[in-house]
Amino acid sequence: MSIEVRHDESCTRLTVIGQADLATASELKTALLDALSTPSKVVEIDLTQATVLNVTCFQLIWAANAEATALGASLTIVEPREAAVLEYLREAALRLPAQVAGEATKEVSA
User: Fold this and answer.
1) What pLDDT score was predicted for residue 94?
2) Which site from 1, 11, 99, 106 is most exposed, i.e. has the minimal number of CB atoms within 10 Å?
3) What is the CATH number of the domain that holds 67?
4) DSSP class of residue 22?
């Protein structure tokens, strides 16, 4: 897995590329914590290039969402293209409300 990070005035975007699993969880955790500490208070997690999202990395994203809420920030997920990753998020009861409307960015609600 690799993570591309892009900061601008309005948002910090983390693009997860490849397999997000136990071996790469610490890298994801660091990136999430860094993103939540930026002044923009908006974090996007782009999973369009993620091929695997295991439970450890899912839990990190879930915890980051709770932390974002506590900080008055927002965390959104850009819908993954990989069907297995999307299905995993759906089964985990993450609401992706914009999916019905066909929007590209999906909001995570814990």
Assistant:
1) 54
2) 99
3) 3.30.750.24
4) G
Cα dihedral sign, 55-87-110-32? positive
Q: Which residues are CB-contacts of 6 (< 8 A; sequence separation ≥ 6)? A: 12, 13, 15
Sign of the torsion angle spanned by Cα atoms 86, 87, 90, 91: negative
The span from the CA of 92 to the CA of 77, in Å, is 14
Query: How do 2-7 and 42-53 pair as beta strands?
Result: unpaired
**pLDDT at position 1:** 87
The pLDDT value recorded for residue 92 is 65
| Number of separate domains in the chain | 1
Contact in structure between 40 and 87 (CB atoms under 8 Å): no
